[in-house]
Amino acid sequence: MCGIIGYIGPEEPVSLVLEALSRLEYRGYDSAGVAYFDREAKVDVVRASGKLSNLAALCQGRAGLPGPAIGHIRWATHGAPTEENAHPHRSGPIVVVHNGIIENDRELRKSLSSEGFSFSSETDTEVVAHLVHRHYRTTGSLPEAVRLALREIAGSYALAVLCEERPGELVGVRRGAPLLLGEGENAYFLASDVPAFLKWTRKMMPLPPDVIAAIGPDGLALLPVDGSPPLVPLFEEVPWDPVAAEKGHYRHFMEKEIFEGPRAIMDTLEGRIAPGHGRVMLSELARLGPSPPELVFVACGTSYHAALLGRQFIESLSDIPVRVEIASEFRYRPLRIRKGAWVVGITQSGETADTLGALDHARREGYLTLAVTNVPGSSITREASATLLTRAGPEIGVASTKAFVAQITAVWLLALHLARRTALREEEGSKKALEILLKSPARLEGFLGALDLGTIDGLAEKVAASRFVIFIGRGLDYPLAIEGALKLKEITYRPADGYPGGELKHGPIALIEPGVLVVAPLVDPDLSAKEWSNIREVEARGGTVLTIASPETAPVLPAYPLPATEGWEGVFFATAILQLLSYRTAVLMGNDVDQPRNLAKSVTVE
Ligand code: M6R
User: Are residues 308 and 214 in the same domain?
Assistant: First the structure.
């Protein structure tokens, strides 16, 4: 939600900031803005409502002096997505970009107005600019002015601040919202996410909360807000390839990322299988100790659907009871879970406020927490007791695709890890599950290489022509069904919902009529026969059903035939088809696939 960038270094800043913002556009696209030192060494602030391309058009022909510059991409919370509300916000010489929410904005506005500060926007950020300005007047120091301003602010923030009177300085600070530092050749970056500066450097460190990054002529100083001694910067190399954040020959990031599924599985497996392929070794989990008496997954959206698959994997390979909770609901309920339980947060971004809140709720009650996340150095990695990284690489498309595939891989690995430790089921079952998992990258690669896009487009036309789409599934197919429905809603805006196949007759079947389409993935070898009964019930009422199934789960030719599958591997195939079905439908409808309306990639507000 909102993306910020700060840069100080030798490059021309306007084009650099615009390029960096283009890597953050997935975080919001209601407005964008940049502030930089112009040829007269004055700060020029340029802002535009709507997408980044509007700002880029306004910036045509503009170039700044090498020095600090800041930029912002907005997902509106306080105030409409207008130019006035676009960041950067300015007060005297102080210019600020912000990601987060200032909770005491109203009180601060009142007191600052009574002191003579005038407001030109409805945003909560403008109070920050005025507060820093007020303290700058008395201290003459930018880091100190920021530090004093923070004392008055309640809420969450990642801030980048510059001052017209300090052309060699840039300041950043965060609490409850992400901010990373990047170190380049005679240059520093501040950014909400790694892809923003990946083109220039891989050296990154997450800025700890309540520590001011003060960059000036003497380099970088990390100054704790509470006045304790400065911290020593410790940069690490991000294992991401800069090309991974580029679209390449694909039309959309989403399309590219669907085809990166096999690589996401392979990279997530890397180094986690003991030599000889005998067993899974998740050394990252060593800190959690022996296997838990209960495991609780907390997650949102697509990550929640991966957790539902995780429950099925773990419960079928071990005797550990597993619960799956929507993070935003879990965090406000009393914890009624067994002593010693692990609470596992699954999150692509590692920044989802609800998932972080849920994990924090568990941590405060003394539970061990595990983060399953795709972003090294993200907030959740710093807050959980242990971290299991998925390795899908940067995911730019707002609709999650390859990260979901990597999450499925991670929970599959987790199930095998726990199965080995409890040794409840026959060794054979786990062995087979591991064998199948190891073959999955190549099998999925082969499957994607032989796709019948004509058939998918034919199905997409049917989806585009329907008023409402119901996705159904049982067992493993239920999480796939609700994930299929979510994907379709997100990028086609078509009303869609997912139900367990068996639930249909308890209400939703009343919706079946011409114009309503049912989509049924069928990859659960144990429950597909039951699911076919549900399909027959729909057909008997004149409904049209599109099935995605392999020969062993389909008594008749399915709408999209999958190859013969073993064990759980069908989840990867069906996922790819469901993702492509939404993608091709959205393209057919002429929608903006990578930046669907109203959404943002990381949801850092509640
Ligand atoms: O970063 P997270 O995995 O925590 O994000 C959770 C959801 O916001 C996310 O999965 C969302 O539902 C996606 N847009 C799905 O495509």
Answer: no
Same domain, 163 and 74: yes
Regarding whether 366 and 280 lie in a shared domain, the answer is yes
**Closest ligand 1 atom, residue 355 Cα:** 4
CATH code (residue 286): 3.40.50.10490
**Neighbour-count burial of 458, counting CB atoms closer than 10 A to its CB (0-12 exposed, 13-18 middle, 19+ buried):** middle
Q: What is the pLDDT of residues 60-79, one digit of tens each?
A: 999 899 989 999 998 877 77
Ligand 1 centroid distance, CA of 399 (Å): 8
- Pocket perturbation via mutation, ligand 1, pick of 326, 330, 331, 349 by most ligand atoms within 8 A of CB: 349
Cα gap 38→590, rounded to integer Å = 39
Residue 233 falls within a domain, yes or no?
A: no
| Shortest-distance Cα residue to atom 9 of ligand 1 | 301
d(CA 337, CA 318): 18
pLDDT at 603: 77
Q: 40 and 182 share a domain?
A: yes
pLDDT under 70: residue ranges of the chain: 1, 242-243, 276-277, 420-428
Same domain assignment for residues 64 and 146? yes
Model pLDDT, residue 455? 96
Q: Which residues, other chains included, contact 246 with Cβ-Cβ below 8 Å and sequence gap of 6+? A: none
Cβ neighbours of 138 (radius 10 Å): 10
Ligand 1 centre to CA of 299 (Å) is 9
Mutation test of ligand 1: which of 27, 193, 300 has the most ligand atoms closer than 8 Å to its C-beta?
300
Q: Within this chain, do residues 211 and 193 fall inside the same structural domain, yes or no?
A: yes
Domain boundary among 415, 433, 449: 449
By most ligand atoms within 8 Å of CB, the mutation choice from 302, 308, 398, 599 for ligand 1 is 302
d(CA 480, CA 520): 9
Among 2, 59, 163, 300, the one annotated catalytic: 2
Q: Are residues 41 and 118 in the same domain?
A: yes
CA of 531 to the centre of ligand 1 (A): 28
| Residues near ligand 1 (Cβ within 6 A) | 300-303, 347-349, 352, 355, 398-400, 490, 599, 602-603
Domain count, the chain: 3
Burial of 232 (0-12, 13-18, 19+ CB in 10 A): exposed
pTM of the model: 0.82
Residues 432 and 473 in one domain: no
Q: Is 300 a catalytic residue?
A: no
Q: Is residue 99 part of a domain?
A: yes
Distance CA 362, CA 384 (A): 10
Q: How remote is the CA of residue 406 from the centroid of ligand 1, in Å?
A: 13
What pLDDT score does 378 carry?
86
Active-site residue 2, yes or no?
A: yes
Q: What is the pLDDT of residue 29?
A: 80
| E strands, 112-265, in order | 155-163, 170-175, 180-184, 187-191, 203-206, 211-216, 219-224, 236-237
377 CA distance to ligand 1 middle (Å): 18
Q: Is residue 238 part of a domain?
A: no
Q: What angle do CA 44, 46, 48 make, to 5 degrees?
A: 170
Within a domain: residue 236?
A: no
Q: Which domain holds residue 468?
A: 453-588
